[in-house]
Amino acid sequence: MIPAARLQAAIEILDQVITAARDGGAAADTIIQRYFTTRRYAGSKDRRAVRDLVFAVIRSLGERPVSGRAAVIGHARAQDPSLLALFGAAGHAPPALVHGEPAASSGLAPAWLQQMLAERFGPDADRQLAALLGRAPLDVRVNAMRASRDAVLADHPDWQLLAATAHGVRLPSGTNVEDLPEYQAGQIEVQDAGSQLAAATLAARPGETVVDLCAGAGGKTLALAADMRGPEDDRGRLIACDTDRARLSQLPPRAARAGATVETRLLNPGGEAGALADLMGSCDAVLIDAPCSGSGTWRRNPESRWRLTRERLVRLAATQAMLIELATLLLRPGGRIVYIVCSLLPAEGESQLADTQLGGTLGLAPWQSRILTPADDGCDGFFIAQSSRL
User: Fold this and answer.
1) Can you tell me the distance from the alpha carbon of 173 to that of 52, in angstroms, rounded to the nearest whole number?
2) In whole angstroms, what is the distance from residue 191 CA to residue 368 CA?
3) Strands 237-242 and 168-171
4) Residues 6+ apart with CB under 8 A from 335
5) Closest C-alpha among 125, 122, 123, 169 to residue 144
6) Which value, in Å, is the radius of gyration of the alpha carbons in the chain?
7) How far are the Cα atoms of 100, 128, 277, 299, 340 from residue 295, in angstroms, in the given order?
8) What is the dihedral of CA 344, 346, 349, 354, to 10 degrees?
């Protein structure tokens, strides 16, 4: 593909990404993969170049553009003027530019989200936001049930120790993890350093009854299982729950590969308490990796800035409050609760805990919280809070 044809491909993909962001469709990565599945003539260099351009455009535009063409024009004017010369070129180039046609404006995030983040970070907001839109590293967690971090690092001098974590390692960008013998042997799992720190906050121990209330495909569940390692008859009980059947179904094979014993429970939305009735008041620890805006993971999914609306944020906050109440009911006296969102919006963090007035209504000790950010901690953005049942 000539450069002008690559530009046209990027415009066509961006049209689909913009529509998907508006209507709740597929992620950008999935759209790009599907696009090239039907275009076998595009070589690997073409696919990589188009993908890089698509994500460069997405990262440079805070507000959702009206079209892929407007997105590229706006990006080109602000970041890469050489692209403008490709409009109207020969071959499969996009049509020539027309005076006065729409062009997107560059920015870090939609204005209303940028204001919320400014409230959190104050004068440091621009630095924090810029880091949120950088490229994410490739982190893995060494599975302590299968290997030691020191042994894994000894075999790979180019892998980097993540000192802030107990088992984290950073791999060179572009590494195909699933092809590594360590992955196939269940010795490593892909997991961002921040996610590892969040799971470790629960301090799960052998012999305990632990619930991962929003387990998804089980990344944090497997980290909890490794913390609960010990003699097979003394590992305790680990229950992974979720309302998403497809995601939860990925956990059993992952657990088998990791050497973990995990129970799974598929919950019906609105009927979660009934499905967990037998565990009420008996759990030692509950982890809530709550559904959220994902604003802390914009490095990985920059188009998610275009998906979020005020209405959706309100719905997410209601779900988060329900999950905190449910988790509290599951705990025995003295049991521990950890609430996590991969979000840096105060509405899903401190304000969420304040609005639910948990200390007064649910019998919890005062919350202790921390935030992690790409700019300060080199990992995805997280809000992490912990408490215990009085």
Assistant:
1) 14
2) 24
3) unpaired
4) 283, 284, 285, 286, 388, 389
5) 169
6) 23
7) 33, 12, 33, 9, 13
8) 170
Q: How far apart are CA 245 and CA 241, in angstroms?
A: 10
d(CA 362, CA 358) in angstroms, rounded, equals: 5
Residue tagged 């088992």 (tokens)? 167
| pLDDT tens-digit series, residues 70-129 | 999 999 999 999 999 999 998 889 999 999 999 999 999 999 999 999 999 999 999 999
Residue 383 DSSP SS3: strand
Full-model pTM = 0.93
Tokens representing 109 are: 């995030």
Q: Distances from the Cα of 83 to the Cαs of 4, 99, 105, 108, in angstroms?
A: 8, 16, 16, 21
- Residue 351 pLDDT greater than 50, yes or no: yes
The tokens for 220 are 């944090």
Q: Class of the 194-388 domain? A: alpha beta
Domain ranges of the chain: 3-107, 194-388
Q: Do residues 379 and 194 lie in contact, with contact meaning Cβ atoms separated by under 8 Å? A: yes
Angle at which helices 193-200 and 219-227 cross, to 10° = 50
